[in-house]
Write a structure and sequence with these properties.
The structure is a single chain. The protein has about 350 residues and is α/β, with parallel strands linked by helices. It contains twelve helices and twelve strands. The protein has helices at about 40-55, 70-80, 110-125, 145-155, 170-180, 200-205, 230-235, 240-260, 265-275, 275-280, 295-300, 310-320; strands at about 10-15, 20, 25, 60, 90-95, 95-100, 105, 130-135, 160-165, 185, 210-215, 285-290. A hairpin with a 6-residue loop joins strand 1 (about 10-15) and strand 2. Helix 1 (about 40-55) packs across helix 2 (about 70-80), helix 3 (about 110-125) packs across helix 4 (about 145-155) and helix 8 packs across helix 9. The longest helix has 21 residues, at about 240-260. The protein starts with 10 loop residues before the first strand and ends in a 39-residue tail after the last helix.
Length: about 350
């Protein structure tokens, strides 16, 4: 087993614009949740973020959606105890919560971009955001308009780098033509490998880094059995025959981990952090979320797992692309993924339909 004692998370380049971050990132959503789940105490949030920092994790990911808004406030207070110049802070905008009917819409208008950025700066209590992601793509607004405002925010020093999350390849290309995209945030793990067919080659071509979310498959790759994750259990992957087939894949991960002398979680993270060696992309930095310091230490242990090209090939062949049975999100979420994230041409005059999420 790869012990984390003595391991300090090193720095890597994310993207080709000179942005340096820790090799593992900390996803802060679990500190408050996305769906008005219970808040952890401010003292607890301070302690867990400080613990991650002391281990070398300096890249923290949040969003205005989380809470909503309360996550940024909590993270901002926690980061006050740390040196700002050693922290890489990412947050996201674009998904609007409508409390009256508990729905969400996507908004990518220039006015909304600016208002979100300024509100996030205030909640986080910082002068600038290191990496600012468009959380989801507004398919009624040409991406050039959204990017134009983001470019202005870079020029004003309010953000340093721009990212996209769940954007389509075409949208990424058009956005990158307006201003360099530093990173895309996409789901990527041993059992969610769909981005390898089109996105990874695109990122290699354009010099874009990748921030994989759910690198442990919402816990499915880190345990023996079905995790207590409400969203995971609602996906097609955990329904009927699909679940039975995917449990076989989980068993294969367990067997590989035993073979390589590590835990399943360490194997899953190690496989991800080795992907730049496979694809020659400028940085792959997975983000994981937890409310337990032990899990932070365990995940850092993945950096001790050394996988050769033969090991990586064996893992990839054991669980090939599209091996997982069922899609990664429920049908009603698909319109908010990269599969439905093209935007109209810039010359088109269309009203902002603000698609529900």
């Amino acid at each position: 087993m790869a012990e984390s004692a003595g391991v300090r998370v090193p720095k890597v380049q994310l993207g080709s614009q000179g942005f340096e971050v820790s090799k593992l990132g900390f996803g802060c959503r679990r500190l408050t949740g996305t769906y008005n789940e219970s808040l952890v105490s401010e003292e607890f949030a301070n302690s867990i973020i400080k613990h991650a920092f002391d281990k070398g994790i300096t890249f923290y990911d949040t969003a205005d959606l989380y809470g909503p808004h309360t996550n940024e406030v909590l993270v901002g207070k926690a980061l006050k105890q740390l040196p700002r110049d050693k922290i890489q802070l990412a947050t996201k905008f674009g998904i609007v919560s409508i409390e009256s009917d508990e729905t969400r819409i996507v908004n990518g208008t220039p006015e909304y971009v600016r208002s979100c950025c300024e509100a996030s700066l205030k909640r986080l209590a910082v002068d600038y955001i290191d990496l600012y992601f468009q959380h989801r793509v507004d398919t009624s607004v040409p991406i050039e308009e959204t990017m134009g405002e983001l470019k202005k925010l870079v020029e004003e020093g309010k953000i340093k780098y721009i990212g996209l999350s769940e954007a389509s390849p075409e949208t990424i290309r058009r956005a990158h033509a307006v201003h360099p995209i530093t990173a895309i945030q996409m789901e990527w793990s041993i059992w969610t490998r769909e981005i390898e067919e089109e996105f990874v080659p695109l990122c290699r071509e354009l010099g874009i880094g990748i921030v994989p979310y759910h690198p442990l498959g919402r816990g499915f790759l880190a345990t023996d059995g079905l995790p207590e994750d409400r969203f995971l259990r609602s996906t097609p992957r955990c329904q009927g025959d699909n679940l039975e087939k995917n449990m076989i894949l989980q068993g294969k991960v367990l067997n590989l981990a035993e073979k390589y002398g590590c835990t399943p979680a360490e194997l899953a993270l190690a496989w991800i952090v080795h992907q730049p060696d496979v694809w020659s992309v400028p940085g792959v930095v997975p983000i994981f979320g937890t409310t337990k310091t032990k899990h932070i230490d365990d995940n850092i242990g993945s950096l001790r797992v050394k996988l050769s090209k033969d090991h990586l090939q064996e893992i990839s062949e054991t669980i090939p692309i599209n091996a997982a049975a069922g899609y990664r999100v429920p049908d009603y979420i698909i319109p908010c993924t990269w599969k439905c994230a093209d935007t109209p041409p810039k010359a088109s005059v269309q009203c902002n339909q603000n698609k529900p999420t």
